[in-house]
């Protein structure tokens, strides 16, 4: 059974300028339930991560200032969010959801977090709507427990934005291989160095994107030999996205997810999927593209 982490506070209220992107966290589970892709048994409500699961990938000083609302105005502006206790509850619960998904995937093959993919969070700061790096925390949690048998983690980041925070956190950690395939001209303007970065030209279409992915992923599985995959399936690669410069169709995005998840399934590699970004003008484009990720996982592991 595919487990799906979701909590009502994933979509906690924000000022008007931030509200629209948050609607997907409410509507996506409703859509999946309504169409019968999942049932209530697939959903679980995560709890906030413990400090001990956050501090391996975040500086203690930054984390304490974040918890207590002591970020400078400049630091808060860089995150994109106004600080509030509810925001911290949301962020620590999203991270807790990804950790819980990792535990489930070890047993059942795959799990998905309706939120997560906060790849712009660095060890000592937040950026780009990311405060705490959930996939980094999950990778560290897996590697800190030898009894789980995870010796090598592969992070596959296919959000349109480079996973700069994740790359920075694991720059000196050979047991985590970071792969980011992103728009060359997208945020962040100053890129970090992942273990493998593939920077795509503006208007990259389905055929070019999928061919490059097919040329890359099998080689990575052969060379990295991961025991676990963390997949960031952002749908901001769509041509309709306001913040992306690529030209994928919804069908191309669906085929991307089916390909990555299919490889994990065939190679029996546990995988956790986090949703990442999606900022199309029409909410339908965002929901349907994300829903395709869940449909693909359910078809393989459901």
UniProtKB/TrEMBL annotation:
Keyword Hydrolase in annotation: yes
InterPro entries: HDAC_classIV, HDACs, His_deacetylse_dom, His_deacetylse_dom_sf, Ureohydrolase_dom_sf
Pfam families linked to this entry: Hist_deacetyl (PF00850)
Source organism superkingdom: Bacteria
The Histone deacetylase domain, residue ranges: 22-289
Keyword annotations from UniProtKB, A to Z: Hydrolase
Family label: Belongs to the histone deacetylase family.
Protein name per UniProt: Histone deacetylase
Organism: Hymenobacter guriensis
Species lineage: Bacteria, Pseudomonadati, Bacteroidota, Cytophagia, Cytophagales
